[in-house]
Specification:
Organism: Virgibacillus necropolis
Pfam families: FCD, GntR
Order of helices and strands: HHHEEHHHHHHHH
Strand order of the largest sheet: 1-2
InterPro entries: GntR_C, TF_FadR/GntR_C, Tscrpt_reg_HTH_GntR, WH-like_DNA-bd_sf, WH_DNA-bd_sf
Helix content: over 70%
Strand content: under 5%
Largest sheet: 2 strands, antiparallel
CATH topology of the largest domain: Four Helix Bundle (Hemerythrin (Met), subunit A)
CATH architecture of the largest domain: Up-down Bundle
Keywords: DNA-binding, Transcription, Transcription regulation
GO molecular function: DNA binding; DNA-binding transcription factor activity
Structural class: mainly alpha
Number of strands: 2
């Protein structure tokens, strides 16, 4: 295989990301197909004039992001996933956000599902009003075709506050910066797909209504369903 040979030399800074970028370009040009074996560490190290350690790092990151499979004794293979999904994952790796966002979504599912449950169970009239206000702000931002990342975060934070659990609230504040960055990226992608913003707004409405109805089980299910769909849309 020589599909990397015409590419530009790898920059010295953040070497593994440059290698990943080259692999992405090869996939986009159709030079690496789903399920195909990638060149060996030695071949790539010689091609890019980098150490095999840098190649190992790139392969490790790609494996963690669910892009390749490393088979001991056989080599590294591109997974047979949808090409668009692979490109999206690789883009996130290059930005340094791939696995972080997926892991963050999994953490949010475990925390916010229960937060919604307890918000429906313990939230008083004032809490529900705050959640509704946050939902209305999100709705207005969506209707005005804004990214609405900050409004989205405010909605989720209002639910964490209504749960009346100080540790849940502290954890949400601790990860709020990461959540906001993840929302900016995911909602930017959402705007590119017609009607997606309204679909996601509908998911938020179901969460709010379940809390308003004081239905803990429904609220938790709605929150977990929403976050699971966010993860799938991101991937």
């Amino acid at each position: 295989m020589n599909f990397f040979m015409e590419l530009l030399p790898v920059r010295k800074k953040r070497v593994y990301q440059d290698i990943v970028e080259q692999i992405k370009q090869a996939i986009e040009r159709g030079e690496i197909s789903q399920g195909e074996k990638l060149p060996s560490e030695r071949t790539l190290a010689e091609t890019f004039s980098v150490s095999r350690t840098s190649i190992k790092e790139a392969f490790s990151v790609l494996e963690s992001a669910g892009i390749v499979e490393i088979k001991q004794g056989s080599g590294v293979f591109l997974l047979k996933n949808n090409t668009a999904d692979i490109i999206a994952r690789i883009t996130s790796v290059i930005r340094g956000t791939a696995v972080d966002i997926v892991e963050l979504m999994e953490l949010r599912q475990s925390i916010e599902g229960d937060a919604a449950y307890y918000a429906a169970l313990r939230g008083d009239k004032k809490d529900v009003e705050v959640i509704y206000k946050a939902f209305c702000d999100l709705e207005n931002a969506v209707l005005n075709k804004k990214i609405a990342a900050e409004e989205d975060l405010a909605f989720h934070m209002s639910i964490a506050s209504a749960a009346k659990n100080s540790i849940v609230k502290k954890v949400m504040y601790m990860i709020s910066d990461q959540v906001l960055e993840g929302l900016k990226e995911s909602r930017t992608n959402t705007l590119k797909v017609p009607n997606n913003s309204k679909i996601i707004l509908g998911e938020h409405r179901v969460i709010y209504e379940a809390i308003q109805e004081e239905n803990p089980g429904k609220a938790k299910e709605a929150m977990c369903n929403h976050l699971q769909k966010v993860k799938h849309r991101y991937l």
